[in-house]
Amino acid sequence: MINPDFQQNPPQILVVDDQKTLRLVLHKAMEKQGYQIIEACNGQHCLDICQKITPDMILLDARMPGMDGFACCSKLQTLMGDNCPPILMITVLDDQESIERAFQVGASDYITKPIDWGLLAQRVNRLLTSRWAILETRRQIERECRLTVSLETANRELQNLASTDSLTQVASRSYFNEYLQREWKRLQKYQLPLSLIMCKTDFAQIDTQGKDKYLCHIADTMRKCKQRSTDFIARYGDETFVMILANTEAKEAEEVVKIIQNSIESLDIQNEYLKISFGTATMIPIEESSPYQLVKNVQQQLAISDEKLRIINY
């Protein structure tokens, strides 16, 4: 079977021969098999046609004046590369040298004159079936490649969604946990300090829309307060943000807290709507501990800060 669409889209065969009579005979014989036929009167004419269209197969006479079939076949391979259709060489030469030469220049098969029409039909069918199978395999590979690219793109988008907080556009808590684990292991190797800042906000008497706007302002402010490109900011909870400071001593982390406090105070947020507290902790990662201990230490500092804030407000 050549292809499942043979009736609606019959294969196109290019017949190349300098003898008009033989072209006519081949034309009629192939037409009876249901193929579409195009004719070329010499090698150059064949090349010109193939620069405009790509036939499904070429029946090419080996002996023609000027550019013979061997030279034409070789140029077709150069011109069309992997898209070159199968070439069936027709020759009166039934000798091993001509056969070898035909295959050397890229012919797919050969048949000798006088032509055995039954054998010709079989070989044409076989070559077209093989070509259709190759093209179908290529199309399948292309479809799979497109699907792979689509899946990879979708996966990247899902990863981005999972790693980014949709409201504030800083990292999500799940990505914070992953990043903290990675930084802990990295700094443990070099015995360098890892600092963590937690910023807890508390809004009162404000609607959700207003609160979301202020949370975005705070997240953007913390981004602007980063001292290094490696400083990492995430939304830890509904109204809580964290900042990871790699290779940062406790004193440096406290300075960053002051910068963030001053920057947030300069925001256009009515004071009675916002209460804010900070916790900070620093550890040198060791095997006997874990990054969760660092988070616990920060939360303890934050609780102390909240208590002081509660007493002051009281």
Would you mind describing this structure in some detail?
The protein has 314 residues and is of the alpha/beta class. It is 52% helix and 18% strand. The strands form 2 sheets. Strands 2-1-3-4-5 form a 5-stranded parallel β-sheet, sandwiched between helices. Strands 7-8-6-9 form a 4-stranded antiparallel β-sheet, with helices on both faces. Helix 2 (43-50) packs parallel to helix 3. The radius of gyration is 38 Å and the shape is rod-shaped. The relative contact order is 0.08.
Q: How are the elements arranged and paired?
A:
Layout (H helix, E strand, L loop, with lengths): L11 E5 L3 H13 L3 E5 L2 H8 L6 E5 L7 H12 L6 E5 L4 H9 L4 E4 L4 H47 L9 H18 L3 E10 L4 H17 L7 E6 L2 E7 L3 H16 L8 E10 L7 H23 L1
Parallel strand pairs: 1-2, 1-3, 3-4, 4-5
Antiparallel strand pairs: 6-8, 6-9, 7-8
Helix pairs in contact: 2-3
Task: Fill in the keyword field for this structure.
alpha/beta; 314 residues; five-stranded parallel sheet
Shape annotation? rod-shaped
Main β sheet profile: 5 strands, parallel
Query: Structural class from helices and strands?
Result: alpha/beta
Helix content: 40-55%
